[in-house]
Design goal:
Elements lengths: L1 H27 L5 H15 L7 H5 L3 E2 L1 H10 L4 H8 E3 L5 E3 L21 H5 L12 H10 L1 H13 L4
Antiparallel strand pairs: 1-3, 2-3
Helix pairs in contact: 1-7, 1-8, 2-8, 4-5, 7-8
Length: about 160
């Protein structure tokens, strides 16, 4: 897994222009069955992928925390929401709550999430490859293929399977 993660940014960079063109076409005229295909690709990939052997998303990026996320996690940690915010979060350029620092403070030494059952929505949905109207998140996906080997594999398989006119 270390080799894969070491090479992932380079591989993603090599595919960036190709991916960008593919997503531009996909956005203009998405196939009717795209959501179905993406769900299938996502499920196939995550049967083979062990996120615990990687956790690169938790080590290198921080999720966005919604108000319900903050309230749920704070309650779980027995903290007041403001105390949780003051301890773990900051406000980013887009005025969203994000982690003060990475790797995530809730990631343990074995790559387990210490707040897994109450983790942020963004973490639950990552890498967003099974999302409805997938073509609408191409910019996010272009970033995620640099971070997540599974997302990279899903996009590569998608380019093989989804025929664009």
């Amino acid at each position: 897994m270390d080799d894969v993660l070491r090479n992932l940014p380079k591989l993603a960079n090599e595919k960036h222009t190709e991916n960008k063109k593919f997503f531009a076409k996909l956005k203009k005229k998405p196939p009717k069955d795209l959501d179905y295909v993406m769900q299938e690709l996502h499920e196939e990939e995550f049967k083979r992928t062990d996120c615990l052997s990687c956790a690169n998303c938790c080590k290198t990026t921080g999720p966005l925390f919604t108000t319900p996320d903050v309230e749920r996690i704070a309650k779980h940690l027995r903290l007041k929401p403001q105390k949780f915010i003051d301890t773990y979060l900051r406000i980013d350029e887009e005025n969203d709550y994000v982690l003060k620092s990475v790797p995530c403070a809730f990631l343990d030494a074995e790559n387990y999430c210490m707040i897994y059952d109450v983790r942020p929505k963004a973490c639950r949905e990552f890498p967003h490859t099974d999302r409805k109207k997938f073509q609408q998140i191409s910019n996010l996906t272009l970033k995620n293929v640099e971070i997540c080997p599974a997302a990279f594999n899903i996009v590569e398989e998608m380019k093989r399977r989804v025929k664009l006119k």
